Amino acid sequence: MKWIEAKVIFDFKDQQLAADLISNLFYDLELTGVIIETPEIESPEDWGNDVIIPEEYSVIGYLPCDDKLEKRLKFVEDNLSQLAKTTGIECKTVYSELNEEDWAHTWKAYFQPEKITSNIVVKPTWRKYIRKHDEIVIEIDPGMAFGTGTHPTTRMCITMIEKYLKRNATFLDIGTGSGILMIAAAKLGAIQVWGTDNDHIAADTAYKNLMQNRISESNFKILTTALVDQIAERFDLVAANLTTKTILSLLEDVRRVLVQDGIFVCSGILETDKDAVLKKMQHQDFDPIEILSEEAWLSIACRSMST
Q1: 178 and 233 both lie in a single domain
Q2: Which residues have a Cβ under 8 Å from the Cβ of 254 and sit 6 or more positions away?
Q3: Gap between the Cα atoms of 131 and 146, Å rounded
Q4: For the chain, how many structural domains are there in total?
Q5: Do the Cβ atoms of 238 and 172 come closer than 8 Å?
Q6: How far is CA 35 from CA 211, 224, 234, in A?
Q7: Residue 85's domain is classified under what CATH number?
Q8: At 16, phi and psi to the nearest 5?
Q9: 64, 90, 108 - which closes a domain
Q10: In the listed set 79, 108, 137, which residue is the last one of a domain according to the structure?
């Protein structure tokens, strides 16, 4: 498959805000990978020689060359134009065509080992990392799937899972992507970890990553389906790192796959959408128990109230 690399180079006084707003355009398209480039990136010696140090601020999204490409490109251009009018963010977009193999190689240059919590480290399979005492190391090769641990929404999800997941609990990750949250849950003691994704490439990638991390096949299951459409079981903890729009829709169905008093962790929510999500949670009988924020993003843990 061929892909279009859409590189949005921007200039704005608040670089982090601009990066988040532009990234959210790509997330609204449910893309499988988004890269944020910043010239301030540090390059430790143990990262290797293939690290790319960006010269300018940019956000990169990868669009599949399919029958929806023209519509997606128009969506990006229209929304970037609207951003310029409403915020003053100046940007230009450079498009390049890539083969899947070229995409995978490009992605690897940006993905480094990262400590997510005090005990959990996410590292790419192709880089070396010396595990420290009691650390949990998650090895990830995202391939064409979204989910490396480097985005604030993923970091906050893992933090929430580490805090609220009990040993021998059951866990479901809705929109699993690379499988990173499933792996984290399994390594934190979940007895069964399930994941769903409507993209067969992501489902295949998640399977490979679970095997890479030596998670027994008897302890996990991955379904290629939209959200919870094919799920009849109930889980102690359910996670969804998606978009605000999808979370709002999912709140109507997620109680069906939660045990009584189960925990739902959701992320991918912009701070500007906080009130809308909390209002929908209240309407669906969820009790918010913790909210984490990082940059312009939120992660919310809530409990399904007894009925």
Answers
A1: yes
A2: 174, 228, 238, 240, 264
A3: 25
A4: 2
A5: yes
A6: 26, 25, 34
A7: 3.30.70.260
A8: -65, -45
A9: 108
A10: 108
